[in-house]
Amino acid sequence: MPMIQEEQAQDVLSVRRAKLEELKSAGIEPFGRKFPVQHHAAEIVDNFPDFEGKEVVIAGRLMAKRGHGKASFADLRDFSGKIQVYARLDDMGPEAYELFKKLDIGDIIGVHGTVFRTSRQEITVAIKSFQILAKSLRPLPEKWHGLKDIDLRYRQRYVDLIVNPGVKEVFLIRAKVIKEIRRFLDERGFIEVETPMMQPIAGGAAARPFITHHNALDMDLYLRIAPELYLKRLLVGGFEKVFEINRNFRNEGISTKHNPEFTMMELYQAYADYEDMMQITEELISTVVEKTLGTSQVRYGDKLIDFSRPWNRMTMIEAVRHYTGQDFGHFDPQQAYRQARSMGLDVAQDASWAAIFNEVFETFVEEHLIQPVFITGHPVEISPLAKRNRENPLLTDRFELFINAWEIANAFSELNDPIDQRERFEQQLEERRRGDEEAHAMDEDYINALEYGMPPAGGLGIGIDRLVMILTDSPSIRDVILFPTMRPKDV
After folding, report:
1. pLDDT digits over 420-451, tens only?
2. Do 406 and 257 meet the contact criterion of CB atoms below 8 Å apart?
3. Taking the CA atoms of the chain, what radius of gyration do you get in angstroms?
4. I need a surface site. Which of 254, 355, 367, 385 has the fewest CB within 10 A?
5. How many C-alpha atoms does 319 have within 13 Å on its Cβ side?
6. What is the pLDDT of residues 237-289, one digit of tens each?
7. Is 225 exposed, middle or buried (CB count within 10 Å of its CB: 0-12, 13-18, 19+)?
């Protein structure tokens, strides 16, 4: 902040603190107590004929003040919206009116008054009496919008919510999305459960974990990167339909699509497979979009995304062939290496077919997957928890759902063969020894659980944050997380 602006800000703070002391000296409590709110702004505005001439009790934050002399107007904002209030010397008396004139933008007050419509047709509450409920000691920013303030908006979300009403709408939509997901799954017999956030082994996904230490047990624990292995333990124990909506933590980079902590919904259904997961994913998301927004078509930037069913389906091999003209259905690593090099990719000569093929897909295909599409047929090497495909054991019964070129969901027929699972964990351990910090760890207890017998099952994970980004036309994941992870900075 430039020196002049900083000095001006300090002057404003000094003036407001002086007002605070003035209130205290006059015997007025500047930070009030319980107030009997009975009505809200939107309720009064939307139902004016029912409220005209009647007394109301409202509370909120002053966002603007106008007028002088013996009458003043102000804008009062509560959670529901904004309404005008009218302060008049003859109605309130000189002492109360003088106090009202000294109020600052940002102060929170409670109002008893009568509803009327002004000559300009503005629905208004004429104040009979009011109370100061919280004195604002910091001024609200005058210019809060724009890229220059984006970092501050994330750091001080509380101010962002005050001065940018549209921000609140994003989080109301987010709440509705989660509510509709719960309703949808509850109606279909799924049981919501909770699994450990701190785990002795980081498993269930390929990611770099956060590590913490438990002093009493003198052991390291990991913030979970996924709840998968614990949810599948419940299938072993006899649950048939379970889900969890909660946070995952991954010690990775921050971008417009990645935050170190994020919200996932994971569900598992016994006696089902990835085809069932495709059906439930399509039905769940399209239903949630319709229930939340009242439409199946969503505008994201300059793209119109249509969630109407049915959605397209392609295998990875088909998608690569369609968008690049290259056929990787030979499963030959050397041929894949030559193809990738001819496409401009710098891949290692000793890389596996699966690694090369996946890089080609991520580089040349994902950007085209705008409308909802299920991509199936992932290589075993990059799907260590998925059941092998019967026709081609090099591939798995798995899908990823792409919308707006982003992976929104991941699902597969769960691997329930403990012998195969151990072999894949051992392969992942070898990858870790080679320096891959994101490779899966060996979880002996999970294998032990599989040895008791886990029914065939389908599993699904949906990224809540990215889905909400699309439904709210938000360019960054930080726009849909109330308090995103930020580098520390002085307030």
Report:
1. 999 988 988 888 787 777 677 789 999 999 99
2. yes
3. 29
4. 367
5. 28
6. 999 999 999 999 999 888 999 999 999 999 999 999 999 999 999 999 999 99
7. buried
